[in-house]
Amino acid sequence: MSLLQYGFKRQKINEPLIQENEQNSENPQVGLKNSNYNKTFKIKWLSEFSWLRYDNDSKKMFCTICIKHKMKNKFATEGVANISKKSAVKEHVKSKDHNEAEKLETARIQMESLQNQLFLSDANVRYIIVVMRAVYFLSKNNLPL
Question: What is the residue range of the signal peptide feature (predicted)?
Answer without folding.
Answer: none
